[in-house]
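User: Um, what's this?
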Amino acid sequence: MNKESNIYTVLFAGAMVIVVGSILAYLASALSAKIKENERFEKQQNILYAMGVNQNEGEGSVNFVPTDRVEQEFSSFITEQLVIEGDKITEDDQAYLINIKKQLDLIKDGKTPKLPVFIGEKDGETFYIVPMYGKGLWDAIWGFMSLDKNMTVQGVYFDHKAETPGLGANIKQRYFMDDFKGETILNGSQYTGIKVAKGNNDPVNNIKDDNEVDALAGATITGDGVSAMISKTVNLYKDYFESLRNKG
């Protein structure tokens, strides 16, 4: 066959597509179990991070429990996993695997979602950890928020898919996440969440009853997305949160 002909070019390109596609399909199938395992570990790491179980050293590090220990640590610190489905609350030791985005999509369709809650115990304190999911500037943002029974934040973890490096991507930097600790999602008796606010006159975040943390420079839309994500999460879980407060 004439290698300079259009027919050869088309056939060669077609063959390459088939070969490369077959290799990618094989790799995806062969690695699917490992990918799922890594996703499971990552969720466990993020939940533990939100309740303060991590390997952080110094002021700026964000270091998770290592993957070779995370399952053991997760079982040790997370004492209960609950699923809220309407007025029903059940225990489910696989609740951490629930895809919160899919559950939020059910709400849009008028259906009842399954909302996971993780109850942790550390240093004699009880933590109530909930997942969050929202929209940043370019794509999805998500995370976990840990609260005590008084609705004071004990820790958060944020992540993103495609926020701008050095700007919106800084939501997963420790200095930003640490600002949320000690804040409250209550304003009086109202569940208001926490706002990422420009010019909140508290750049070092000493004020903990204003429902605000200082915004990231140059990342207004991402910050607004974090505010909206927290507000949406608080609204979804407020009946459960109120039941915790009523227990005293």
Observations:
- The mean pLDDT is 92.
- The longest strand covers residues 125-135.
- Helices lie at 6-50, 67-77, 100-108, 174-178, 220-246.
- The chain is about 40% helix and 25% strand.
